[in-house]
Design goal:
alpha/beta, three-stranded antiparallel β-sheet, 15 strands, 22% strand
Length: 259
């Protein structure tokens, strides 16, 4: 097999799996690991991937990679809707209290399933996400508080010191929290320090933390960690975590709910 053919196959594998291993590629192509490393070096120079220990990852899985909100709305939409419905069960029909909604497309799915109950006045919603506040404000009789701050365009959410202070002054009963990565060793993580500071404040303020994350986030580690697994109560996702992450969640006494 010529190098160009290997390169094309490596790029296809990255498109599907997001990550490749030097050892696995050497076995697949029946070449030495040194040959695979040269292939990966050449592809990295061409901007097709990013080298990591033992292999390579797709560019969009780099530790600082973050897609625009409009693009994320289209990704894994069915899984996110199912996760949102399952997570909404964390506040049962008899629930009377406050809910904090983090910014994100999966928390937006939670909001859509909670919306029919907001007009009853039994749930007070707090959020720093402009898109969620705009959608929920249309619900007649909804009790809604929007936390302000500097708006980060990529997520349409308030961030910064004022936002963090406002969250720290609250004690919501349940927080629905999004994340870009969930891993056994690094816990919850996100690419941006300002977003991480807000999420950290949410985790520390809430009485109960429900993390919503599609399976693409499982096993990922982004640049900034904001909470260890032991600080969350429930993880709602659409696929079983791998054995290592599953064991870590169990050790941290985190409930895993499958949508």
């Amino acid at each position: 097999m010529y190098a160009t053919e290997r390169h094309e196959q490596i790029e296809r594998l990255l498109l599907v799996d997001g990550r490749v291993s030097v050892v696995d590629l050497a076995g697949r192509f029946d070449v030495t690991t040194e040959t695979v490393r040269r292939d990966l070096d050449q592809l990295e120079s061409a901007g097709a991937l990013r080298r990591v220990h033992g292999g390579a990852v797709a560019i969009d899985r780099a530790s600082t990679a973050e897609s625009p909100l409009a693009e994320r709305l289209q990704r894994h939409s069915a899984a996110k809707s199912a996760i949102g419905q399952r997570a909404a069960a964390a506040v049962g029909e008899a629930f009377r209290g406050s809910v904090f909604l983090d910014a994100g497309t999966t928390t937006a799915a939670v909001a859509s399933h909670l919306a029919p109950r907001l007009s009853t006045g039994s749930i007070e919603v707090v959020t720093h996400a402009l898109t969620l506040a705009n959608a929920l404000a249309a619900v007649p009789g909804a009790a809604l508080t929007l936390i302000g701050g500097r708006v980060r365009g990529l997520t349409a959410a308030a961030v910064g010191a004022d936002t963090v202070r406002a969250i720290e002054s609250m004690r919501p009963d349940v927080a629905f929290l999004g994340t870009n990565g969930v891993s056994a060793d690094f816990g919850l993580s996100t690419p941006d320090p300002d977003e991480a500071a807000v999420k950290r404040a949410i985790v520390r303020s809430a009485r109960r933390v429900v993390v919503v994350a599609d399976s693409d986030k499982l096993g990922r580690e982004l640049l900034v960690g904001f909470a260890p697994l032991a600080e969350i109560d429930v993880l709602v996702t659409d696929a079983e975590p791998d054995p290592v992450l599953s064991a870590a969640l169990s050790d941290a006494d985190v409930e895993v709910w499958l949508a």
